[in-house]
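Suppose you are handed only these lines of text.
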Amino acid sequence: MNFFEISKIFSAVLLTIIVVMGINKVADYVFAVQKPEKAAYLVPEPEETTSTKSVSNDSSMESIKNLLVSANIEDGKKVFKKCAACHSINKGGNNKMGPALWNVVDRKFGAVNEYKYSAALLNYEKNWTFDELNAFLINPKGHIKGTKMAFAGLKKEEDRASVILYLNENSDNPKPIQ
Ligand code: HEC
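From them, the structure of the protein bound to heme C can be written out as follows.
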């Protein structure tokens, strides 16, 4: 093998290397891969609030107190028109189909003496707190099985908040809402 032959082989190898590298470069350029901004396999970070969220997810179970602050008595008066067919609200008001509601906030369930309550309501030994009223007014028959209050319920949270605020105002001793 003479020098000429060796250099021929050497340049062939060199050429091959250059060509391969060149193709690589060109390929890089032609098939430039767009890297996604986010890796597809990114595991979502666990949300710290998940546990508390799942508890308070059902907004109806959040304390209605938070909403009373921003509720409006005038709205409550309007909403109460739905109740007025069966309930009086003024002081000394009579029982109608339903018991008189003056002073109802925080009084015991079924406490109007002259009124004939259902057994379901009499047996429910609690007070009409804001949250009890809220839960009852969403769906009366759902909250107290056997109640004779034939009312579908107030589905809108704002309606319940404003009417509860209105009930609270119609009292000898309105309860603090905060
Ligand atoms: C169709 C008639 C009717 C309508 C409308 C009605 N209620 Fe009643 N409500 C009743 C009856 C009847 C009772 C007694 C329930 C029982 O004894 O089971 C009652 C009971 C109640 C009680 C329990 C009072 C107590 O002394 O323990 C509250 C509070 C109440 N209603 C609020 C409301 C509000 C607020 C509305 C309007 C959003 C409303 N009701 C709409 C008939 C009605």
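What can we learn from it? Residues 82-83, 85-87, 97-99, 104, 109-112, 117-118, 120-121, 128, 133, 137, 147-151, 154, 163 surround heme C (CB under 6 Å). The radius of gyration is 37 Å.
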